[in-house]
Amino acid sequence: MTSEKMSWAVADAVDYKGFPADKARTGGWVPAALILGIEICERLSTMGIAVNLVTYLIGTMHLPSATSANIVTDFMGTSFLLCLLGGFLADSFLGRYKTIAIFSLIQTLGTGMLAVSTKLPQLRPPPCRPHQTSCHQATGLQMGILYLSLYLIALGTGGLKSSVSGFGTDQFDGNDPKEKAQMAYFFNRFFFFISTGTLLAVTVLVYIQDEVGRSWAYGICSVSMFSAILIFLSGTKRYRYKKSVGSPIVHIFQVLVASFKKRNVEFPSSIGYLYEDAPESSRILHTDQFRCLDRAAVVVEGDFPGANGAAVSMPPNPWRLSSVTRVEEVKMMVKLLPIWATTIIFWTTYAQMITFSVEQASTMERTIGGFMIPAGSLTVFFVAAILISLGVYDRVIMPFWKKWKGKPGFTNLQRIALGLVLSTFGMAASALIERKRLSVAKAAGPTTPTLPVSVFYLIPQFFLVGAGEAFIYTGQLDFFITQSPKGMKTMSTGLFLTTLSLGFFISSFLVSIVKRVTRTRGRQGWLADNINFGRLDLFYGLLAILSLINFVAYLVCAVWYKPQVNLKPVVEMENNKMGNGSMQAEERV
């Protein structure tokens, strides 16, 4: 009877009481859906604010175009950068469940404060009067309250986002073939749901911001997030929890410090003499890449405290000696870095879709019958491209590929490559479309409020970059979670999300550099305060060239990358056992 109960328990998970998780009573799609619900509301809040914030900063706070774009990208960049903090806290102290609950409350507070700051007239500059040449910009206090609200939201987003996908995958047992297959579909479902949240944000929420009031829209964000927290907490008894194994950042530094201390130590004649203390079932096969890190597993005198005294059984000092498995885990993380670096530029191009592209839309003809499309709602084509791409991939490409190649769809690296190609074409299309818009502006007069050119000209750039995101986001998430060590999956999710962060920060950096370099006496350069007087097409062209160069670099890194093989040959394990035993015995004598 006991063995039957154990067979229904998930090996590395516990329930809310700390007992082994019962497979029949915990985990699966229902708890995963409760977790996805909080991610939908997070995306509703974050994207609902980001896609239309530039128009608020320009139209209400009276800030210059480039400055407004940089505020948006800095806000988004900080949101994703703080995912590293959230991942560290989840791995080291709080666990994923508590991290999600705490930081979603912080985001709720931030959106509530933003609703108040956009409601009170004292926190906004006076509106521009007719025929007024220059308007009063927001004061330091007004911008300070706005920044406080935005960065509380960024803190909440960073904390919960680092743990949501990992906690969702925790609900499936990777050792169960049926649940493992469900986990494979979880990534696509995960992205589909957060895209649904984005769709609501760029349609319903943006419309409420423009037509009803921003304070109402941000209040809806706060209430919906609080409701999602209550729904999330309702699943407490159904969740599976993974035990924390300590901060992976500390483990990484331990290996680096140990290998540096032993930089002059000679390698043993056989890898069987390297130290290993991990259980055989969880050992990782030794690899020849980054051999300098193997020195951390070389046993030398003084690695075992009390070796000459009574405390012979004391474990080694982890800052002096690491196991082969721990070293290989660090190698796995290091191998992710080239792919990580070559996906950053995509998010730089993505940043233009919620900043300059929205500003382009605000100058173009947006009426259908008697209805005026909000400029921020043009990103609906961006979200539609994501949903269509995911649907076609899930229902058409994956079954076809499985029948033809015997594999369930493209590999994660192939999806990333496809996303980079589509975004490159998207930037090239953006440059051509902007050139068309500028020619119309020149003919109609740059000061014309609404140019006689349809906003639907912007659809190709939204569609191409949106389809690119569908492939690159799912490919990146799959790659960083499946190719990282088991105990470092939360940190690897944070590492993946830093590509978004750095992409936004690089966008801000590029905007500042281009604005400074191209500005001449009497001319505002490519990125003028009024885009009708600038050359945004050249800026888009620059991004297209950078994307092409980055794609070539990515191909080199993808060819170089070798997936980790986790299965350890029996003969080598036996050699390791014999070698480790004899070597450690020699050191302790």
Total strands: the figure is: 7
SSE order, one letter for each helix or strand? HEEHHHHHHEHHHHEEEHHEHHHH
Structural category: mainly alpha
Distance between the termini: 47 Å
Low-confidence stretches are 1-7, 566-589
Shape: globular
By CATH, the architecture of the domain at 11-244 is named Up-down Bundle
CATH superfamily of the domain at 11-244: MFS general substrate transporter like domains
Beta-strand percent range: under 5%
The strand order across the widest sheet is 2-1-3
The major beta sheet can be summarized as:
3 strands, antiparallel
Q: Which oligomeric state applies?
A: single chain
Radius of gyration: 27 Å
Task: Describe the protein's architecture and organization.
The protein has helices spanning 2-7, 29-59, 65-81, 83-119, 140-169, 177-211, 214-234, 248-261, 324-341, 344-353, 356-362, 380-405, 412-444, 459-482, 489-518, 536-560, 570-588, and strands at 9-14, 20-22, 241-242, 364-365, 367-368, 371-372, 451-454. By secondary structure, it is mainly alpha-helical. Among the domains are: 11-244, Growth Hormone, Chain: A (Up-down Bundle); 248-330 and 567-588, no CATH class. The strands form three sheets. A three-stranded antiparallel beta sheet has the order 2-1-3. A two-stranded parallel sheet has the order 4-7. A two-stranded antiparallel sheet has the order 5-6. β1 (9-14) and β2 (20-22) form a beta hairpin. The longest helix is centred in the N-terminal third of the chain and has 37 residues, at 83-119. Belongs to the major facilitator superfamily. Proton-dependent oligopeptide transporter (POT/PTR) (TC 2.A.17) family. It is found in: Membrane.
